[in-house]
Recover the amino acids of this structure.
């Protein structure tokens, strides 16, 4: 049986339909069409250091800072603290503008790339280092140009810094080799002034002075380092087969101290105090106790003492297992 709608019911249906249509149109107005945002591209931002790369650079150079702190501090026999304070990409001209007029700057060759980088040390660090190596207390001195003897002393310090850099940067396959000292006017010839460089700054603190050690790498080095850090850092590194074979061959030639001895026993002190020639000391060991063969202080096996020609030898009887092996 069909139901017949009354007029008021029909009006209510049309009113509900109009209300629903009005709400949908309001929602469309409240949610405008989303358009793609287009912004101008700046080539100056190309190759900027990402957060991941910055973390990898910080870990790499924190290792260098710790090693230099211990090794150079021990060499100078004084408190010596190195800390990485910044890592950024800037044009080489901006790096040169930060360098004071009186400074110590050196050219460092990076192998196997065969390119030059710049190492710059604030002159406030030089007099205390020279004073320490000449037997003084590492007092501050006046800012002036170095004599030939002082320059030779500072060159030996720079060589130590390069050695520690090579050790820390070994994961990216770069070694640092000190070339020569550079005057500020000569440094502009090392790389184009507009080239973007990777600049690292380390703060060096000594008992009576402090200053900055700055490193500037050309774009080719920066790109190589950042690419290798991004792909390799933080992963388990595997050496090439030929490197592993060479390492295993070299390790087989390492000599370890070894001994054949009875298991350890405890003897009263009064027995040791009363020792005289001809006395027999009773060891708390059974008569069939086998000697132990120890290598590097670790017990590896029980063995029997024998003679092989004119040499003493040991014949392995049983390999030790578990916690004693």
């Amino acid at each position: 049986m069909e139901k017949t709608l009354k007029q008021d019911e029909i009006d209510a249906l049309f009113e509900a339909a109009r209300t629903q249509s009005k709400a949908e149109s309001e929602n469309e107005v409240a949610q405008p069409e989303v358009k793609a945002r287009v912004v101008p591209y700046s080539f100056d931002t190309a190759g900027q250091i990402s957060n991941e790369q910055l973390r990898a650079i910080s870990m790499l150079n924190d290792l260098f800072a710790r090693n230099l702190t211990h090794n150079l501090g021990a060499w100078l026999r004084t408190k010596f603290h190195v800390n990485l304070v910044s890592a950024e990409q800037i044009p080489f001209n901006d790096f040169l503008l930060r360098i004071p007029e009186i400074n110590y700057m050196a050219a460092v060759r990076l192998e196997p790339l065969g390119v030059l980088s710049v190492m710059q040390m604030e002159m406030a660090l030089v007099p205390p280092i020279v004073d320490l190596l000449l037997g003084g207390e590492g007092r501050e001195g006046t800012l002036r140009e170095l004599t030939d003897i002082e320059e030779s002393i500072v060159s030996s310090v720079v060589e130590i810094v390069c050695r520690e850099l090579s050790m820390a940067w070994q994961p990216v396959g770069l070694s640092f080799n000190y070339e020569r000292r550079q005057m500020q006017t000569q440094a502009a010839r090392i790389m184009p002034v507009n080239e973007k460089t990777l600049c690292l700054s380390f703060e060096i603190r000594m008992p009576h002075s402090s200053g900055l050690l700055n490193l500037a790498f050309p774009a080719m080095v920066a790109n190589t380092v950042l690419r290798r850090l991004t792909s390799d850092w933080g992963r388990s590194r595997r050496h090439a087969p030929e490197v592993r074979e060479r390492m295993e061959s070299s390790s087989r030639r390492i000599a370890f101290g070894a001994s054949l001895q009875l298991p350890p026993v405890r003897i009263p002190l009064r027995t040791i105090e009363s020792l005289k020639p001809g006395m027999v000391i009773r060891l708390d060991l059974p008569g069939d106790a086998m000697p132990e063969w120890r290598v590097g202080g670790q017990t590896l096996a029980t063995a029997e003492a024998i003679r092989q020609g004119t040499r003493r030898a040991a014949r392995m009887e049983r390999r030790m297992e578990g916690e004693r092996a």
